[in-house]
Write a structure and sequence with these properties.
about 400 residues; elongated
Length: about 400
């Protein structure tokens, strides 16, 4: 879209962006969504400037892959098309290539359209967003309050470039800036309005595909400053990232590795393991398998009264307390993993009742708590037994 100067500045700004780094550490699809939407936008621009069948086929494959990574990937593709259709100064549209790419994208997405997803309740717990959450989204994308001011200043400089109609090299980048603005704003606006009028689906990380557009716009504005001012600003961004790392850390990892390692060191064959909410069983079994091998000699309680989404994010069924009581009575010791604080709208407020039931049969308990990491939750690991357990579990 612009020159090498803007590209290099954008590279540095993305590399020290806390939102980007945070999700790059997770084994989830959000960073993949960012990669694919950035690639699809690059192919879209290249396809308008130098239309070839290879570019447009690549665009169709990339868009389809982005949708499979996350449903919101389709919003980025729609924003690309809207930016092209709603600006009179756009490049000429190679309609044969575009329509062929659209048809190929639909063919690649047929399995998604024909087969019902395994779960459609992942956003059932979300509340209707309020306008203040838009500011919260911007602050998350920028990495904090102070950094938001820096980004806003850079964005204002980019808008100045738009208003003047040409950049420092005399290029008229109005359509290029319009493309980035629509890419950054349109998906957010559509999701917010849909969340208010139809069903809440507004989650900042779902919109991570908009982050590259924001970064490039800010880099464009920053590139208008003198080189020494650009260097100082970039060094300041890196410095603020380091300060935030020192103060708060960046990892959002949950404490399963540490808690399960402690349990694996002290557990005895035949101990019962209770996980509540139910989704906690996934990470516990994963790390237990790594600590004690795939044939771990512990028993996991099964006490949900109905089916539930194993990854969480949906309303849980009521615990079957009778079935849990039978399993508790059959084991001398019970390890429990609990989320601190239940969520009423997800029906996760049964911890007191579960603890009371287990205490009837195993009155002694030892609690290991783990504090929350940034926005993640705090968890407790509780060992219930008939008598106090000496150190080492012997």
């Amino acid at each position: 879209l612009f020159d090498l100067r803007v590209a290099l500045i954008a590279d540095v700004m993305l590399a020290c962006n806390a939102m980007f780094l945070r999700h790059a550490q997770e084994a989830r699809s959000y960073s993949l969504l960012l990669l694919l939407t950035a690639c699809s936008s690059a192919l879209f621009i290249r396809g308008l400037q130098q239309p070839t069948w290879g570019v447009w086929v690549g665009y169709a494959v990339t868009v389809a892959a982005a949708v499979y990574a996350h449903y919101f990937g389709i919003l980025i593709a729609c924003a690309q098309v809207a930016a092209c259709l709603l600006w009179r100064g756009r490049p000429n549209i190679p309609w044969r290539h575009v329509l062929t790419a659209a048809g190929l994208t639909m063919v690649l997405l047929l399995p998604e359209l024909l087969f019902r997803p395994a779960s459609h309740t992942q956003v059932d717990e979300l509340l209707t967003p309020v306008p203040a959450e838009l500011l919260g989204l911007l602050m998350q994308f920028c990495g904090g309050r102070t950094l938001t001011l820096v980004y806003v200043g850079c964005l204002l400089l980019a808008m100045w470039t738009w208003w003047r109609g040409h950049d420092a090299q005399g290029v008229r980048p109005r359509w290029h800036i319009w493309f980035l603005v629509v890419w950054a704003v349109a998906p957010v606006a559509v999701v917010f309005i849909f969340s208010v009028l139809v069903k809440p689906i507004f989650v900042p990380k779902y919109l991570l595909g908009c982050l590259p557009a924001l970064i490039i716009l800010a880099a464009l504005g920053l590139s208008r400053l003198r080189t020494w001012m650009v260097i100082i600003t970039l060094v300041a961004l890196v410095g603020m990232l380091v300060v935030n790392l020192q103060r708060r850390g960046l990892s959002t990892s949950e404490p399963w590795r540490e808690l399960v390692a402690q349990m694996a060191a002290e557990a005895r064959p035949g101990d019962l393991v209770v996980c509540y909410p139910y989704y906690i069983r996934l990470p516990v079994t994963h790390y237990l398998g790594r600590q004690r091998g795939p044939g771990a000699d512990l028993v996991f309680a099964d006490f949900a009264s109905g089916p539930y989404h194993p990854g969480g994010g949906a309303v849980d069924p009521v615990p079957d307390m009778g079935r849990l009581a039978e399993q508790v009575q059959a084991h001398a010791r019970v390890w429990c993993f609990f989320l601190q604080g239940g969520e009423a709208r997800l029906n996760r407020e049964w911890r007191p009742a579960i603890e009371a039931l287990i205490s009837q049969h195993h009155p002694h308990r030892e609690i290991t708590s783990h504090p929350p990491q940034l926005t993640w939750f705090a968890y407790d690991m509780v060992l219930f037994s008939d008598t106090a357990v000496p150190p080492g579990g012997e």
